[in-house]
């Protein structure tokens, strides 16, 4: 009977070589086998279609969720890298400025002495302090 099993699914009758006539395989009568074959041929596939549709919708939602997480992490990584680059640049500039300029400590009294005291300034008048310390008006 093992050699007739695949044939039973394809056809309702199998040829028996020993008997020389058509017999039914697996001991199922003709009407029951035709009814089973009709059931499997005409099965309503709407439940399968709806389940595949639901699974594809869930897969799309999961994909969009993972995409959003990836976008947020990449954005955060780029912002962190930018902040780090700005901090290292500012630190490097500060080190260069400190290495070029001699460190001097001033008291607030000395700072007030160094600031030019101008008596005859008018609104809109531009005053220039030169390197030698003299202060002149840009427009005479």
UniProtKB/TrEMBL annotation:
- Any Pfam family matching the protein: OSTbeta
Q: Which sequence ranges are marked TM in the entry? A: 48-69
* The name this protein goes by in its record: Organic solute transporter subunit beta
Q: Which UniProt keywords apply?
A: Membrane, Transmembrane, Transmembrane helix
Fetch the InterPro entries from UniProt. OST-beta_subunit, OSTbeta
Task: State the organism named in the record.
Answer: Nipponia nippon (Crested ibis)
Q: What do the Gene Ontology cellular component annotations say?
A: plasma membrane
Record GO biological process = bile acid and bile salt transport
Q: Which GO terms describe its molecular function?
A: protein heterodimerization activity; transmembrane transporter activity
**Highest rank taxon of the organism:** Eukaryota
